[in-house]
């Protein structure tokens, strides 16, 4: 069913393509992690992985938002968004740094 701009309202194919792209990016990062950790500190590797993840998410969400292919409201209020962001930062700083230090060891 087309929307008012002639763009299909279903984004099923876009989400499938996005999932495959993000999976490929994550696979690439996992493959090169061990080799990179031989010469780079775990904190720098963690930062690189976060950059790849943010780049992938932006590559997916910006076009979907710009073309109006999704509703970006999700019914999340400011408090919930804050807790989600805090959990993401804690996971990034603590869990992933510990993972990369262990992987390097």
Distance between the termini: 54 Å
Helix-strand sequence: HHH
Number of helices: 3
Question: Mean pLDDT across all residues, rounded?
Answer: 78
Basic shape: flat
Number of strands: 0
Major beta sheet summary = none
Helicity, in percent? Answer: over 70%
Task: Report Rg.
Answer: 17 Å
Estimate what percentage of residues fall within beta strands.
under 5%
Low-confidence stretches: none
The chain-level structural class is mainly alpha
Question: What can you see in these coordinates?
Answer:
It is a single chain. The protein is mostly helical. The protein has helices at 12-37, 42-66, 78-104. Helix 1 packs antiparallel against helix 2 (42-66) and helix 2 packs antiparallel against helix 3. The longest helix is centred in the C-terminal third of the chain and has 27 residues, at 78-104. The chain is flat, with a radius of gyration of 17 Å. The N and C termini lie far apart (54 Å). The model has no long low-confidence stretch (mean pLDDT 78).
Q: Which features characterize this protein?
A:
3 helices
Short description:
With 105 residues, the protein is mainly alpha-helical.
List the helices and strands and how they pair.
Blueprint: H1 12-37, H2 42-66, H3 78-104
